[in-house]
Amino acid sequence: MFTSWHRVGNVPGTVQSIERAAAVLRLLAGTSGHLALGEIARSLDLAKGTVHGILSTLRHVGFVEQDRASGHYRLGATLLNLGTSHLDVNELRSHAINWADPLAARSGEAVRVGTVADGQVLVVHHVFRPDDTFQTLDVGSLLPLHATALGKVLLAYGAAGSAPAEELDRFTRRTIRTPQALATELQQVRDAGWSREVEEMTPGTASLAAPIRGYGGLVVGAVGISGLVERVCDSHYHPHHHLVALVREAARAISRDLGAARR
Amino acid sequence: MTERYVVAIDQGTTSTRCIVFDRRGRLVSLAQQEHKQYYPKPGWVEHDAAEIWRNVERLAPEALRRAGITEEQVAAVGIANQRETTLLWDRDTGAPLGHAIVWQDTRTDDLVRDLRDRPDAKLVEHDSALPLATYFSGPRVRWMLDLHPELRARAERGEVLFGTMETWLIWKLTGGLHVTDVTNASRTMLLDVHTLDWSPTALAFFGIPRAMLPEVRPSVGVFGKAVAAFPGVRIGAALGDQQAALFGQTCFTPGEAKCTYGTGSFLLLNTGGELVRSTHGLLSTVAYQIAGGPTAYALEGSIAITGSLVQWFRDQLELIASAPEIETLARTVADNGGCYIVPAFSGLYAPYWRSEARGVIVGLTSYITKGHLARAVLEATAWQTREVVDAMNADSGLDLTTLRVDGGMTADNLLMQFIADVLDVPVVRPLAAETVSLGAAYAAGLAVGYWPDLEGLRQNWHRAAQWLPTMDPRLRTTEYRNWQRAVERTFDWTRPS
């Protein structure tokens, strides 16, 4: 009934459980209907307990679904949309909101959470600078990837696909203009674990950002602060250490929240 | 000098939280624990008060440990609690007599119907400024005493005590102080809201011995010193959770209002030193009383189904996988397509109070998609807010100029914008999301001089987001009319059998 490649052997230097998981997925992909736990175990010549553990893990990450009535397994929607599926932006905001507020309170600066849409940064959440001056919500607006701290994080960790190869739009005399300069900058972001932007978008303002990681460590967004250069940076245009620490702390907290919430 | 802090105990319906705040009202640490919900019969909801107290004992040191501070650094502790939840306990042993009956519990339905027919019911409604309903604590105490006649004799001798959750917690914290605050007392139907003391008329009406009732104290003022959970720390305040949220939003001036958007939603408007009696289906309630200072009253509009409509959309219709996705789905269309959902799942609350009404979806055509339904779900929350605000404006003579919002649904930008649009006033979200616990902390800190005055607290309030109305006034009028026509279609659906 099933061809031999469904059978699982031990190949030296590989991770056995991943091989077995791949075999389970191939088996499910090769059948039109649903399979019971016992059928999968028999087909792969594995103990039911082993297969159950693999299926539970695959269900947890959304690669496999279980029919409520029959208890049979089939491929999950996440797997079918792999490559195009992404975290819902409103879902991202609902997880970020509890951490973005304290970040604004402690840093005294405006906070934004961004993700990628149409090759730009989509602002999904915005907390005003807590000084009660008139400010306008810019949730839903789009920002350039290469000229914002949020965008640099999204580029550096592959959330925005590959970095642009052509000449980059210029906003100020400090904007990064060449793909080579951007590549160097992105490497620095990966080394440091956070990004900065000083007067590259708007004269007089600077921003910092750090990655938000979803399930399995995948970067799904970025959180950052922005404000006047003299508040965000010291006299040498280096961002204040305590602000960097606050931004990274908030990003880690949101990431934990996202990981914990995806069951 | 060592930095000092204020701690809030937020004793809610599903969980208890201890939260440490600093002088600027910023959250320093949080510890939280859920407690078990008991549903012994349909319509019955109970909590184990002993379990809730054990949770407080565990959470208190945990919150301080997470903040890296000791009891000596805590200037005061404040309590905010689920309202109307009713408990009896033994004065000598301190042990609860049965479970607490939770505010959602409707077991006193028949009792309340009988009581309503009595000619003196009107006098009780006048003294308490509340309509006779299962929602409040008084009928529950009567129900418990009726069920166990031996308790009544013991209650008359003061051996059996009554309390709402703040009374229970203060009793345990102080090792035997039997007190309540005016905001919680104002939800029992036993308080004369004019004198702010127990109403002899109401006690006679319900047959409740005065000896079992706690002493009524101001909300903001030192109740006593804790001997357990926070040994040596002063208890500076107690408030019902919605009143605490009003305080946390620093709505200290008449005309200022907040709405907390959760499973249901609660809109409270500060009406100042004057008790305003609603002729439009709202509740009159005490907002807070500061020891040696003023008493403020509030009008309250409760909306039964708001966030729970989104949950229904997710769990029963399965059109979305998570609550936040309602906004994503709603944004796939530009408007509601002529579709309206009125979620009168168990009748309509303020301002209609029609228990026989049931929910409707109207305006269905083959054009309607799940996106339109998602819009109609969100719009239902906004229009219900509008109806409560209209009733408040009419009752108070104060025109709402800004609505301060908090709660989980404030993460939904489309909804917040729509609320601003239909109310035609700015909607603002404060930086402090934990308004209930913040309010308890503010009140406690104020009582011990940690914060100097109300003005000092106001300076801690910062705007985190603001939505300004942009809707064409003609469209607003038409849509509101459509909503009201949809509401009319829910009336008289259930018939007495």
TrEMBL record, chain A:
Keywords attached to this Swiss-Prot or TrEMBL record, sorted alphabetically, are:
DNA-binding, Transcription, Transcription regulation
HTH iclR-type domain mapped to chain residues:
15-77
Identify the residues that the record assigns to the IclR-ED domain, covering every copy: 78-260
Domain of life according to the entry: Bacteria
Q: Name one Pfam family in it.
A: HTH_IclR
PANTHER family assigned: HELIX-TURN-HELIX TRANSCRIPTIONAL REGULATOR, ICLR FAMILY (PTHR30136), HTH-TYPE TRANSCRIPTIONAL REPRESSOR ALLR (PTHR30136:SF24)
Full protein name: IclR family transcriptional regulator
Q: In which organism is this protein found?
A: Paractinoplanes deccanensis
Automatic annotation (TrEMBL), chain B:
Q: What does this protein do?
A: Key enzyme in the regulation of glycerol uptake and metabolism. Catalyzes the phosphorylation of glycerol to yield sn-glycerol 3-phosphate.
Query: Pathway membership of this protein?
Result: Polyol metabolism; glycerol degradation via glycerol kinase pathway; sn-glycerol 3-phosphate from glycerol: step 1/1
The Swiss-Prot or TrEMBL record describes its family as follows: Belongs to the FGGY kinase family.
User: What regulates this protein's activity?
Assistant: Inhibited by fructose 1,6-bisphosphate (FBP).
Q: PANTHER family given for it? A: GLYCEROL KINASE (PTHR10196:SF69), SUGAR KINASE (PTHR10196)
Asked if the record carries the keyword Protein transport, the reply is no
Which residues make up the binding site for glycerol? 83-84, 135, 241-242
Enumerate the spans annotated as Carbohydrate kinase FGGY C-terminal domain.
Answer: 257-447
The answer to whether the entry has keyword ATP-binding is yes
Question: What GO MF terms are annotated?
Answer: kinase activity
Q: Which HAMAP family does this chain map to?
A: Glycerol_kin
- This chain's protein is named Glycerol kinase
Source taxonomy lineage? Bacteria, Bacillati, Actinomycetota, Actinomycetes, Micromonosporales
List the keywords (alphabetical).
Answer: ATP-binding, Glycerol metabolism, Kinase, Nucleotide-binding, Transferase
Cross-referenced SUPFAM superfamilies, in alphabetical order?
A: Actin-like ATPase domain (SSF53067)
- Please list the residues that bind ADP: 13, 17, 263, 307, 408
Q: Which InterPro entries match?
A: ATPase_NBD, Carb_kinase_FGGY, Carb_kinase_FGGY_CS, FGGY_C, FGGY_N, Glycerol_kin
Residue span, Carbohydrate kinase FGGY N-terminal domain:
5-248
Which reactions is this enzyme annotated as catalysing?
glycerol + ATP = sn-glycerol 3-phosphate + ADP + H(+)
Q: What is its EC number?
A: 2.7.1.30
- Residues given in the record as sn-glycerol 3-phosphate binding sites: 13, 83-84, 135, 241
